[in-house]
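RETRY 2/3 - previous attempt timed out on the joint model. Re-submitting the same 957-residue input unchanged.
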Amino acid sequence: MPLVRHRTASRLAAGLALSPALLVLVVVYLGCTAWTVWISLTSSRMLPNSTFVGLRQYASLMGNERWQVSVANLAVFGSLFLIASLALGFLLAVAIDQRVRAENTLRSIFLYPYSMSFIVTGLVWQWLLNPSFGIEKMVRDFGFPSFRFDWIVRQDMVIYTLVFAAVWHAAGLVMAIMLAGLRGIDEDIWKATRIDGLPPWRVYLSIVIPMLGASFATAAVLLATSVVRLYDLSVAMTNGGPGVASEVPAKFVMDHLFERGNLGLATAAATSMLITVAAVVAPWLVWQSRRTRRAHA
Amino acid sequence: MGKLCDVSIRGVEISFGAVRVLDKLDLDVAQSEFIVLLGPSGCGKSTLLNAVAGLIDVQAGQIWIGGKNVTWEEPKDRGIAMVFQSYALYPRMTVRGNMSFGLKVAGMPKPEIERRVNAAAATLQITELLDRRPAELSGGQRQRVAIGRALVRDAGVYLFDEPLSNLDAQLRAELRVEIKRLHQRLAATMIYVTHDQIEALTLADRIAVMKDRVIQQLGTPNEIYRRPANRFVASFVGSPAMNFLPGAFAVKEGAPCFLSEGIAIPLDGYAFEAPPQDGTPVELGIRPEHVEAGGGVPAKIEMIEPMGSDQLAWLRVGGHPLSMRLPAEACTVAGEAMQLRLPADKLNLFDAATGRRL
Amino acid sequence: MTAIATITPAITQPAGMRPRRLTPARIGIYAFLIVTALFFLAPLYVMLVTSLKPMEEIRLGAILALPRAPTLEPWVKAWSAACTGLRCDGISVGFANSVKILVPSVVASIAVGSLTGYALSFWKVRGAGLLFGALMIVAFVPYQIFIYPLVRVFAFAGINNSILGIVLIHTIFGLPTMTLLFRNYFASLPQELFKAARVDGAGFFRIFWSVMLPMATPMLIVAVILQVTGIWNDFILGLIFAGRENLPMTVQLNNIVNSTQGERAYNVDMAATILTALVPLAVYFASGRWFVRGIAAGAVKG
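RETRY 2/3 succeeded.
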């Protein structure tokens, strides 16, 4: 029965090939998550212990001023970053779609920041926004001695500088996604709008944007996940400062895991981050799978 | 309904980059006429339609609609409406939204919009679909909505760009009838592009057969069918296709005839347009339904295709295949020999070199 | 839009091409694009220009000015003499480390990812759908959840602070995205190919190696681009798992720049930054259309 043996051999081989993935999924992803969540329910500080304390770590997390600042910063940063990136990316895609010349060059210019690491991005913008050396000094030298652009050293404005840098980094990505969506619109629809005599802004508003729902959603989800992971940018640009004014949750976790030696608090923070991500991503994934299932039906 | 316009295409030239797609084309469409641009893909028919619509620029020449020179006008100012092959419905709007959006943006008062939308929906029998989205409709329904969107514009000229090509055969036949009824009702000027010769023959007042950027023949369906101007038109129009026999023209004892592989077919009674010289290589064309039994041309039946309402017999005449229409009841059998008669008044003679009708 | 705004003699009728006018809308679009392009290019320009200036010029300010006495000295210093913590051997150390980390990580993550994607797409394994779904979900989870347990496990296994450790980490965290990529790609190939190979008698690995992998060249290119960019630009994982001897370039860069006391040598910092950004930038410019394909493929999750 060589065929049957062949079949079983292939089945085993497939199982073997999938075992790393399975291992990673179970051991790393599930296992580590479970371990982290467990620690967050104990009173571990420098070293882990198994004293179960329920949700006490989460309570102290909520009351921790640094954490509150982190979360508030992330909320402000996240919403501004999302809106600005989506808007700028969309406008760039629309502009490029107008059959402009040098399209490839322009696309390359808008997309290259996305290829650079957040550390590089953060450092570059740290210099540009440096008051004594960057834009403020330059404009002052031009003849506006009272010009101020020292947001990066002001506690109340520093978070907005992070938004600048992040939008510079990500707008190209949004543009690429939107452009693909725009190019997917049937040419006959554009012809129909010309015959209907619709002004271009009306076409984009009432017809194109509704049709691009999936592209917007994809871009938004990608941006949102990078918002929660925000760490490198904060470290490189301002190192959380001045003070803790540009502190972010990921940095909070890292600092408390290593430097400040408070495992319980750090893991509680990490778990909170996880819950937030799940809340954003889960509905989108469900919606996506329902869409693909309907498409295949 | 709206003002009825005529269309005049004068000396139009269209190029895409270095490629010349239409060359000094002239065409006049009368008021209320239904003209079909018929041809294979790449012949320039869609390009011409888009130029009339104003969607592409012409490099030279003029386009007049309703006595007005619209060569530089935007599509919305030309008084036209257009129906596309892919329907081009706005996916996120309801049927009502699709039909009313252009009018709304143009600032038309709401009651007038309502009136028009309801009237068009009634004409096309899509009133129950008004609140649905395009994704929920079938292909035939979507095309009706597309036609409805064109109707509400109350245009002077309606342009159709292969509207039925995306539908299956049965739907195509249904909507074809609807479009003809629509034309009778509205008496509007319609320019219709298709590659389907059946659509052309059934719908058109006149057909412009196009190939290689040039109008090969402009005439009524009858003229096109019975007196094709060249070999291409003869072979493109008519199904099953016309038979062609290669041979030569000769004058035998004062009488014109067609010679091929030992067969002589008399040509008395054939209406020559340009009588050729003795010995010119020609092609003889005859439609399957015009081949008669009982004459002086020997043939052998090779195969019979039953087609429901009749039969199509494939014969060999002088070494060349020839198809012939037979009634369904005829008891002919493959392998039989037959004598055929090819009546001169039903023949079509084409110059073998140029394809022109002789 | 009625015809011309200029005076038209009554005899001349519109014919031929419409007069092409530069409408305000078109000017606006170009203006928007050009201004935004300058905004995007400015940082790169400033970095380049500053890295070529001696410190005296930098102290004067004027970040947009071209160097009056251009010098490559900052570059030399950045490469071989800048101080990262205790060592002052320049960022070349980081470069070497990054390469040592990059190559095995890219190979390993793509190998495992492509094999897993292949297994999930053609072979009807029980629970394949579930596994794939789980991998998709997990791709979104932030790293912070896994860090402590992984550090402990690696320390226990003795591979903490080693190249092997960081390569393993990159493979693990690259698995979801790579599997997604290849599985979606293989799913778009005709099933007949696979069936024909099986009829020919080829087994699991044979089909993968001889039939599917050669056909997956476009996706391999995309995967390489994504992984090279992602792994080279990584900071947090390299910081934790690579160990002080093997810190990647991004970490070294941050050390050089952000831990200097006294006056910052901006030109050296900028040179170091450009050096760090060079590899992904080169990949980006060399790959052209492929980079965008990579984004599109990575963006389509499921």
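The mean pLDDT of chain C is 83. Closing ticket.
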